[in-house]
Design brief:
The protein is of the alpha+beta class and about 525 residues long. The protein has 2 domains: about 10-45 and about 170-525, Alpha-Beta Complex (Fumarylacetoacetate hydrolase, domain 2), CATH 3.90.850.10; about 65-170, no CATH class. It contains 15 helices and 23 strands. It has helices at about 10-30, 120-125, 125-145, 160-165, 185-190, 195-205, 280, 285-290, 305-315, 335-340, 345-355, 390, 425-435, 470-480, 485-495, and strands at about 55-60, 65, 85-90, 95-105, 110-115, 155, 165-170, 175-180, 210-215, 230-235, 240, 245-250, 255-260, 265, 265-275, 295-300, 305, 360-370, 380-385, 405-415, 455, 505-510, 515-525. The longest helix is centred in the first third of the chain and has 19 residues, at about 125-145.
């Protein structure tokens, strides 16, 4: 961390440099993120099935989602593989179910409850249970076709089920939920100002950067926040977040500093682990064997507060490059400084930032992994809205309204060669990285283990709120503003940009092919202190 440098006795050329630096910072580093990122959208997807083109409005400068609702559940192919949901009863109880039918056009949702105390994990991990429920589904579909549906089934209005938040997370809370950072070229380019193909290819050769999202962790060496955090929520529940969050800076009294939380959205695909895995299990396992350890996929909300991530990256700019780059860095200083170092402290701060809120929305559907042992390609969309200023306490961007969902992300989640935005790292690489013994995740007591039902989220494509300026601009401002501390940089980065991030009353909308959609409203709560 830099030391403060008072300017009172410095010669006038330094005052000129300071003034120029401030102007540069205000004009370039501190300017607002874009309210639209059309370059991040894969427009080739807009007219494709299963996307209903009449639900999108696209022009040269903006793309909107028209009336997102139950009709946006889209095609849910329940015959391609077992599909699970969690039905919440009016009395507060719930039942895990298999989806027999999901027909938005007819406003119908038909569910087959699992046996008492049985979960989707029990079914997917046991081949005989898969066969059993496959046979029952065929029998129930035949009864429905004959007009004699069983009273065992739950048949409801899809519209009402969504409106009443009757669909919960489609599997029990995992022991742990992890996520991959910087896994899509579009995110590097459009959000993090890394547009060099050589850098992206160099990153492909490093270990995937995995952090912990659930259960929530306290900040490194910091106080344990006292807020009531659920962490895991359903697909239509509100996202509650702390109004203020700690960052890796201490004040004159040695107390960890809190700042106003700048909350960002990330829609992702999550994969569910089907069996207990340790490093010894995966170190020599084939890719096919590791794909076989995945039993299902679902839609994830990986919402987070950006402040700790940004401040940690600012601090690392002044840290020396490790003598041994280790598995996460390329060894090229320019490349590694541009994305930031990835060590245990960084991983810990990222985990805190991504977990200290009701950020992990799951579902509504959990779809069994295919027999082909591959990652299925899935189209995914993200939209966000702006609440009225009286609710969100900040003005909405010029030219925007309060009754519209603005499309921010459209992508195919894929590891397939030939797709421009294919993931940097494959599913087997991510699993091995999660369990590697020299892992940045070991800010928690080792050894690392993955358990049945644990979730790993595969990362976000481009189009998030955060907008980093090019490294050359930051380096120039850093040279001119040599006396600035990390909090000064934080305030310049986020100051004036609060309106662009998610605020109370705003909503986010996530949709993924064959996995359904999520819709969450943001709700802030005041911190109670450590």
């Amino acid at each position: 961390m830099k030391n403060a440098h008072p300017l009172d006795n410095r010669p006038w050329p330094l005052w000129i440099g300071a003034t120029l630096g401030l102007l540069l910072l205000v004009g370039l580093v501190g300017c607002q993120p874009d309210s639209t990122k059309m370059e991040a959208l894969d427009r080739n997807l807009f007219s494709q099935t299963p996307l209903p083109g009449n639900y999108l409005s696209v022009d040269a400068g903006e793309a909107n989602i028209i009336q997102p609702g139950d009709h946006w559940m889209g095609k849910v192919d329940t015959k391609a593989g077992l599909t699970f949901a969690n039905w919440r009863n009016a009395d507060g109880t719930h039942r895990f179910c298999i989806v027999v039918l999901c027909d938005p056009n007819q406003d119908r949702l038909v569910l087959l409850p699992l046996e008492d105390d049985e979960t989707p994990l029990d079914v997917l991990r046991e081949p005989t249970r898969r066969v059993y429920y496959g046979q029952r589904l065929e029998a129930h579909r035949a009864e429905m076709a004959a007009g004699t549906p069983s009273d065992r089934l739950i048949a409801v209005s899809l519209t009402e089920g969504v409106a009443d938040k009757r669909l919960g997370p489609p599997l029990p809370p995992p022991r742990q939920m992890l996520a991959v950072a910087a896994n899509f070229p579009s995110h590097l380019k459009e959000d993090l100002a890394i547009d060099d193909p050589d850098i992206i290819e160099a990153l492909r050769g490093t270990r995937p950067r995995v952090f912990l999202k659930y259960p929530p962790v306290s900040p490194p060496d910091g106080p344990v926040p006292t807020e009531a955090i659920r962490g895991i929520i359903g697909p239509f529940d509100p996202i509650r977040y702390p109004a203020r969050i700690h960052v890796p800076v201490r004040d004159e009294d040695g107390q960890m500093v809190q700042v106003a939380a700048s909350v960002d959205y990330e829609a992702e695909i999550g994969m569910v682990i089907g069996r207990r895995l340790t490093w010894e299990d995966v170190a020599t396992a084939s890719d096919d064997e590791l794909y076989g350890a995945i039993i299902g996929y679902l839609l994830i909300s990986d919402t987070k507060a950006r402040n700790p991530q940004v401040v940690q990256n600012i601090i690392s700019r002044d840290n020396p490059l490790p003598a041994d780059p280790g598995p996460y860095l390329t060894g090229n200083e320019a490349i590694d400084r541009q994305l930031g170092f990835w060590d245990k402290e960084t991983c810990h701060w990222w985990s805190y930032a991504a977990g200290w809120g009701d950020y992990a929305g799951l579902g509504p559907f959990l779809v069994a992994a295919p027999q082909s042992r591959t990652l299925p390609d899935r189209i995914m969309l993200t939209g966000r809205s702006y609440a009225p200023e009286a609710i969100r306490k900040h003005p909405i961007p010029p030219g925007h309204t309060t009754d519209t969902f603005y499309l921010r992300q459209s992508v195919i989640v894929s590891s397939r060669d030939g797709y421009a935005d294919r993931m940097l790292w494959t599913v087997p690489q991510i699993i091995r990285s999660t369990l590697a013994p020299d892992n940045a995740l070991d800010f928690r007591p080792p050894p690392r283990t993955l358990y049945p039902g644990d979730i790993i989220s595969l990362g976000t494509p481009g189009g998030t709120v955060i907008t980093v300026k090019p490294k050359a601009v930051v380096d120039l401002a850093d040279a001119l503003l040599f006396w600035w501390e990390p909090l000064d940089w934080h305030d310049a980065f986020f100051g004036g940009n609060e309106a662009m991030y998610l605020n109370p009353g705003d909503e986010v909308f996530f949709w993924a092919e064959n996995l359904g959609y999520q819709r969450h409203q943001l709700k802030a709560f005041e911190n109670q202190g450590p």
